[in-house]
Amino acid sequence: MPRLRPALAMAVLLVIVLASSWFGGTGQQVDPAVAQALQNVKWTLAYLSEVTKQTGSAVRAEALEPLVLDRMQKAVDTFIDN
Amino acid sequence: MQSEVLEIMRKSICLIALVGMGLLPVAAQNRIESDPGYVDLTQLEQRFGEEPTIEINIHGALLRLVAEASALDDPELAALLRGIRGVYVRAFDLRDLKLDEVRRFKNDMSRELENDNWATVVKVRDRTEDVNMYVRLIGDEIAGIVVVSINRYEDETVFLNIVGDIDPEQIGRIGRKFGLDGTTDW
Description:
Number of helices of chain A: 3
Strand content of chain B: 25-35%
Oligomer: heterodimer
Shape of chain B: globular
Structural class of chain A: mainly alpha
Order of helices and strands of chain B: HHEHHEHEEEEH
Distance between the termini of chain A: 74 Å
Low-confidence stretches of chain A: 57-65
Mean pLDDT of chain A: 70
Strand order of the largest sheet of chain B: 1-2-6-5-4-3
Distance between the termini of chain B: 64 Å
Mean pLDDT of chain B: 83
Number of helices of chain B: 6
Low-confidence stretches of chain B: 21-25, 182-186
Order of helices and strands of chain A: HHH
Largest interface: A-B, 43 and 49 residues
Number of strands of chain A: 0
Largest sheet of chain A: none
Number of domains of chain B: 2
């Protein structure tokens, strides 16, 4: 029986390693700094969306390059529709 | 003799790699500041003499990590973020500032941006709100967006700069998914 102890210890160790890698892998660990940065980015996009939505009806396009006008007009139309 | 030459070459390559790795973060920082879509908002604190109530500076490796962190939950957001090179925001409480000074700064900034080939795409001025949005195009791509907002109803002024190829329609669509309240704890 004492001869089996190292093998038993190795088996237990293997189970612990496999279990920790399994459970560790299923829950995505995000660094708090990255999570905060993600929140900040979402807030910025929400703010930009809100500002454009509020001002959408008052867009004044003056001598804009056709591409800018076209792209922005599509965006503003979408905001107004929603 | 041959082994000595090989050893010298190996050491040289290691040295170049180490120097290169050390310079990379500096180079990345310099790149964003020389980006055509970048606008320096750091001068605002000095100009107004007040600390911002909201300060966001996200670029480089952090922005890439944010994109990857959102990839699983929101692939559309991740795709948008991969095209962005920087996100910068400064917001100030208007009650701490002189409104005339803020307006003067906004006009100066507007003039500078227009001289620097930024196009004014939104200009709104009513009783409570004063909003300008600028876009800079390089070829067919948007290099950056700047929003300057003075909101007297909410006593807040916000300066925002997003650097990168941004589709305004995509921003609108994605931005609507997130609320201004509760998405962040300042």
